[in-house]
Amino acid sequence: MGGKMDKGIGSVKEQAGKLTDNERLESEGKAQKIKGQIKEGAENVKDVWKGARDGVKN
């Protein structure tokens, strides 16, 4: 799953947990959102390194 998808699903879970007063579901949602943010950050770092590598080749 991509970072954006994890963040989206995490948000839905978090809101569902809040609405149903389900602390476990809310926590799972928060954790999944953080996981998505980490994935997006890693993807951004990978893109930066790829750009830097390509710049050195030229």
Task: Give a structural overview.
With 58 residues, this protein is mainly alpha-helical. It has one domain (3-57). Helix content is 91%, strand content 0%. The chain contains two helices and no strands. It has helices at 3-20, 23-57. Helix 1 runs antiparallel to helix 2. The radius of gyration is 16 Å and the shape is rod-shaped. It starts with a helix and ends with a helix. 12% of the residues are buried. The model has no long low-confidence stretch (mean pLDDT 92).
Helix and strand element order: HH
Low-confidence stretches: none
**Inertia-based shape:** rod-shaped
Q: What is the CA-atom radius of gyration, in angstroms?
A: 16 Å
Query: How much beta, percentage-wise?
Result: under 5%
Q: Let me know the number of strands.
A: 0
Figure out the total of helices: 2
Overall structural domain count: 1
Helical content stands at: over 70%
Largest sheet: none
Q: Could you tell me how far the N terminus lies from the C terminus, measured between alpha carbons in angstroms?
A: 33 Å
Give the helix/strand class: mainly alpha
In short:
Helices cover 91% and strands 0% of the residues. It has 58 residues and is mostly helical.
Which tags fit this structure?
58 residues
Give the SSE layout:
Elements: H1 3-20, H2 23-57
